[in-house]
Amino acid sequence: MFTTSPSRILVLSLFSNVALAALPLVDFDRMGTVGLAGAFAGLELFQNSSSSPAFDPKSSTLFSRDANGALTRLASTNVGGRVSTGCNLKDIFYISGSFSSIGSISANNIASYRPSDNSFAPLGSNGPNGEINAIFCDATGNKVWVGGSFTSPGSNIAVWDPKAGSWSHPPFVGVSGAQSRVLSITTNASDSSIFFAGSFITTFPGSGAMLNGTNNPNVPFSQGATPFSSSLVPIPLSNAQLDGSPSTSDTRFSDIKNILCPSGADGPSNSWFAADSSEALVTVRTFTFISANGIRLGNTFQSGHGTSGFSVTTIPDNKIQTLHYRDTATGQTQTCSDPCSLSTDSSLLYQDFLFDNTLTITGVQVKLSQFTGSSAGLHIFQLLSSGAFASSVDENNGVSCFAPNPSNTTRTGDWAAKVANTDIAGTTQTVLVGSVDVGTPAANGPSFTWVPYVSASGNYDINLLVPGCISFQDCGSRTSVKITVFPGEGLQPRVATISQQNEDDATILLYSGPILPSSPDFVVTISMSLADDPIGSGQGGKYELVADRVQMVLKSNGNSTSSDSGTASGSVQGTNNGFGFLEWSRSFTETDADATKTLPNSTLTSLDILGTEMFNGAGGSNGLSFANPSAITAVAHHPSGSIYLGGNFTLSSGSATGAANLVVFKNGVLSSIINDGLNGPVTSLLLYGDQLFVGGGFSDTLSGSTSGKLKGVALYNVQSGTWGPLGSGLDGPVSSISLTNGQVLVAGNFTRVVTSSNAGVSAAGFATWDIEKGAWVNSGGFVVGKMTFVANETASTQLIAGNVVASRKVGASGMVILKNGDSKIGPAISPLGAQLDTVQNSATSIALRRRSPIPSSAWMSHVLRSRFFSRQTPSTKLTPLPASMPAPSPAVLAGAFWTNSSSDTEVALIGGNFSFIATGSSLSSEAIAIYNTATATIQGLQGSQVNGTVRSLLVDEGLLYIGGEFTLRNTNANGLAVYDLSKQAWNGDEIPALQGTSDSPVVVRSVSKSASKENTIIVAGTFSQAGSLRCQSICAYDISSKQWNTLGSGIQGEVASIAYAGVNQELLVASGSIALSDNIVSNVVQFSFSNSTWTALGAPGELLGPISAVEVNNGNASSIFAAGRSTDGSTLQGSTTVAQLAMVPLQDTHSANGVIEPDRMLMVSGLLSDSTFGNASSALYDGQTLIPYISASSATGSSGAVSSLFRSFSSFSFNQRHFLATGVVILISIAIAAGVVFLIALIGILWTLLSRRDDKMTKFDAAEDDDDDSTHHRPSSLLEHINAATRTTILGAGPFVNHGEKEEEEITHDNHDPFGPDASNYMRAETPSDAIGGMLAEETSRPAHARYSFDGAGEGELPISAGAELEVLDDRDPAWWYTRDVRTGQEGVVPAAYLY
To answer: Which end of the chain has fewer CB within 10 Å, C or N?
Structure first.
């Protein structure tokens, strides 16, 4: 129940109170199925703005989401705060992130929330002193584990004990290294251990072997290199094609080969100059594939020559590479691209520039773009390998610069060279192939041994490169081989059996771990022989063993485990480093473990090799020091044992070489998944059976296999190893995902769900994917913002958080279904289950043309108005209708219900400005949808699609009549079309098209049917003719004859709204900007089907402004409401637009006031703006009070609009009847600022709003009234009645407290209107015909009764009591009758409205 403070309840000048208290209970069920349509993306019952402050997008706001998806605002953080994660433990939810307060409490980065009493509380006083990025509620240990970036109470990890109410560090102190941040805490599938992931380094003792930390002593020292880069063996280029151009003409410096391995100091024959005043290119081509990790450049310091800027382009991809180098001033790693600076400091012999990863290339081109003196020049030019290498082809094993000897090979058996062409012109691939008879024992088969030269100790990956069998056309001969790796003295050999039957080139990890450098006493060897149990059947009785290259990838050098800095001497004990992953078993009892240092081997688990392989694959200490270091942000453990790791990383070596952002650890090996992972960072992983849902900032797999359909979110099938999109994804990154009731909830920084047309459905920060339906569905609630977090609060509710601009309890794409709900919380609101899309190239609002402004005119008194119109010739110049209410797509503007007789299924038909993809279809449908409320599925119309906007729908005998402003392909339809719902096809009998004018195109605003006119459809709006028939703005279509007919003599102007009156709808009421055929301007008119005549409702000029909506109260022709615009002054803002008026039944009653019966209210819908209650989309009017009822928001968070309420019952019964008699025309205006007045006109009797008499009798001079010989009337001014009645109703005082002189006025002219100029004589009878038959001049008297008491305090007035028997002696005055009290015989005047 919504309440407000009394200070918000105000009295409007001419209207009534605006209520912000308890909302009325509308009886929606009595109207059948009820739909509410409009231009909105979210709505809720109106809430007092003072109890719901505006959102600050600089703060993070937390919401609770119930089982239906409705959102309730809980609290907000301090400005700049952020909620990142949360979890539930024993009915308490723990919320964490980076904030100093949440709600009304102070809390540093973490707080508890108790849903039972909606309270927040801080957690102790010594909690984490930095941002929290991960949280895990440990139900087994009754603890809350948090991770992030902080130093206390633990190093990036801390533990909260709810029972003790205290914080502590974890049993292993914490973690450190790399970015020193924990981003994920989860458990394994059996809950026996806890996984920690992020960006940190773990260290375990190695084998105990002593690794010689000294680099090759022949490598000269330079401050421009690091121990890591100095350990990389240069690639021998003696057989490569080397070119430097343009080159100097000085022969001492013209040979480019002199700088490959210069034999002496910088100078002649050891340096190279480019031609003067020219950029130069140094190009190296090997014409075979090499593995390179960077380039080494040494500048020349010869006078007048030197290079200051350069760039490196790799061949064959022609990509300018980003390089990483050591800043000699700071010692930090820096990056550069084009150009990179080459130091001109002569103390630096050379500088090493490393690539992002190890690259497989065939050459490089170095552009020397900037130079000192007259030309560029170099002293040293070398390509750096991945670490070390050895080729099966001896000529490729040349001596590397500074190496004492080259890599080499040995072999036994028959081996022959085999050459294959590659996809690169001029590049071949040569390998050695050993043949052996099938069935030969392994010991008797051929063998091959690679002996790579290793420059320095360190942790290496050793890879065997196996060319694909398709390129060599030997797939049938391939088999498996046994590989034995001897890594170094004191280190155990590694033996593995691998298959060589790969069709494409493969890189197979043989070993990962410490390697000793080459020395006279020991060399690393990699041996290959026939497998003990070879696979395959061979070809021609032969197997082939293929020997290509061995690649050694340095992950960390022997004297540094976490950075590139340090000296190049000394020795350390071998260790195993891990990156970003740590498993901690619940069974561990160690009390002295410290993961910030070296963990004991007793804490080493089988999964910790995962961290080791991530460390090596991500570049080891080298990769982790790059400008954008790697991180693991999410971990998911499949029950099969596979562990999926998501984050921001690229693996350059190891068993998962080339994988990016998502890998799997399976069967003890880190592996890439299909298509090498994703092309952007991963933030979230969620396992649902064998379906792995992935969220992040990607758009496709790394190989681009889905054509960009994995935008922000993706599905990976664990069993089939295949990727699948979620629709077409989202238009921004995902930060968090959660699972509830078969739906995946997605939060992030996106605005739309992308459709196949790349247009998109609004979903600003929060979206829901239904797993069973395989489609995006309505999220229930509505929010606009950058959402950061979503998680389950209970089994059926969730919490979401983010930087919010706007929110509504219910998210709805233009339409909801309303049903009776709990009396305490209001109606049950069911949003459209499907998502509507925007219309391509649609305008933000649909408007026919520019409208002229509202005229600046004021209401006139009844007497002056009579004289004015009697003197002047009526004008037919009408004010155009205002522009249509803004309806940015997707917007639903009209609705109807239809029950399919063959299936007895009721569906909602909706029309407007939208598009959508129908359930089970890939094609886009436009403007019309068929929505099954039971299954929440949506279908489009078959055949051609409406091209434009639909504004009105009518279902009649299985035919759907569609009105609006549109065309239909291959038809002559213009604003009106007919669709056969049973046949699911457009009606073949085309209706003669409507036509507009050059400046006024066709708009159909209403398509309707009267119960009294069978086979007749009434079409109204803006048009000039129908077919060949001149029929302006309203016309009748005869279904039987298929012809258009005019209604009577027709009207002029434009029609905005249609309603029907009478027991059998024999009267049609139209509103808009209208004049009758006799040029009488009356913006509300009535048509009688019985006599085919039009009648103006109200006196001429009484409704000066165009009327946008009209409603008849339950068919009562004397109780008609209208809404429009004119001028006056008070509280509704000028931006207010009323789209519809609808009388709705109540479950209870309101206080009787004589305007609207107690069992119903008038629902005013549109875009309402009021200085008292703010913005609303629908309000309820009880005859005295305007009650804001529904608030809606657009997809951007601005105010939304309600266009129509539609129902399945064509008619229904109100509980109570005949509260009102029939009679007069009364206008009620809601005051508006800025000179624009919103009007509600009630045509009917409003007993409590009738004034008893004038403040002062109006006097007229005979000269001024030369065309009217009447004497002065008693009060009949409409506005005076309103003022007086308003004071009586609201203030409780008499309507006229200051009595002036009362002078009666005689009416002597013969052409007196029996109804009076304001139709007030309708008060005398139940029908207009009764009123016409009332007492005229020839009658002498007639009996009557008092409906109300009248004090008769004024001069000449007769006091009467309710029910008194009276005799009417003179009723010629429309407002005051001269009567006699039958009981007392006293005579006097009484208000005519008080009698019946």
So the answer is: N
How far is 1080 from 308, CA to CA, in rounded Å?
A: 89
Task: Please state, in angstroms and rounded to a whole number, the distance separating the CA atoms of residues 982 and 1187.
Answer: 42
pLDDT digits (tens, 9 = 90+) for 643-662: 999 999 998 887 888 899 99
Beta strands in 944-1092 (DSSP E): 946-956, 959-968, 974-980, 985-986, 994-995, 1003-1008, 1016-1022, 1025-1026, 1029-1030, 1034-1038, 1043-1045, 1051-1061, 1067-1076, 1084-1088
Q: How far apart are the first and last CA of the chain?
A: 41
pLDDT reading at 1086 higher than 60 = yes
d(CA 283, CA 770) in angstroms, rounded, equals 56
Q: d(Cα 1255, Cα 164) in Å, to the nearest integer?
A: 78
| SS3 at position 418 | strand
Helix (H) or strand (E) holding 163: none
Q: What is the pTM of this model?
A: 0.60
- Residues 813, 762: contact at Cβ < 8 Å? yes
- What is the identity of the amino acid at 1350? F
Rounded CA-CA distance 47/70 in Å is: 15
- Which pair of structure tokens corresponds to residue 298? 């040494």
pLDDT tens per residue across span 584-619: 988 888 778 999 998 887 888 878 888 888 888 876
Rounded CA separation 254/245 (Å): 10
Question: How many of the other CB atoms lie within 10 Å of CB of 198?
Answer: 29
Tens of pLDDT along 1107-1128? 999 999 999 888 899 888 655 4
Q: Please give the share of the chain, as a percent, with pLDDT higher than 70.
A: 81
Burial of residue 318, with CB atoms counted within 10 A of its CB: 0-12 exposed, 13-18 middle, 19 or more buried: exposed
Cβ of 277: how many Cβ atoms within 10 Å?
Answer: 9
Distance between CA atoms of residues 464 and 481, nearest Å: 11
Q: Rounded to an integer, what distance in angstroms lies between the CA atom of residue 879 and that of residue 107?
A: 61
Beta partners for 889?
Answer: none
CA triple 1138-1139-1142, angle to 5 deg: 95
Q: Can you read off the two tokens belonging to residue 77? A: 């953080």
Distance, CA of 920 to CA of 916 (rounded, Å): 12
C-alpha span between 1095 and 729 (Å, rounded) = 58
CB-based contacts of 521, cutoff 8 Å, min separation 6: 489
- The secondary structure of residue 884, as a DSSP letter, is P
Predicted local confidence at residue 1237, as pLDDT: 36
| Cβ-contact 801, 62 below 8 angstroms | yes
- Secondary structure element (H or E) that encloses residue 47, with its range: none
Q: Report yes or no: 200 and 181 within 8 Å, Cβ to Cβ.
A: yes
Count the neighbouring beta carbons within 10 Å of the beta carbon of residue 94. Answer: 22
Q: How far is it, in rounded angstroms, from Cα 875 to Cα 712?
A: 62
Q: Please say whether the beta carbons of 649 and 661 come within 8 A.
A: yes
Inter-residue contact 448 to 431 (CB < 8 Å): no
CA–CA distances in Å: residue 739 to residues 132, 684, 714: 22, 12, 14
State how far the Cα of 744 lies from the Cα of 792, in Å rounded to an integer: 11
Say which DSSP state 1291 is in.
Answer: I
Nearest alpha carbon to residue 370 among 470, 278, 452: 278
Quick: pLDDT tens for 423-441: 666 667 889 999 999 999 9
Q: Residue 789 is inside which H or E element, if any? A: strand 782-792
Q: How far apart are CA 1260 and CA 1303, in angstroms?
A: 11
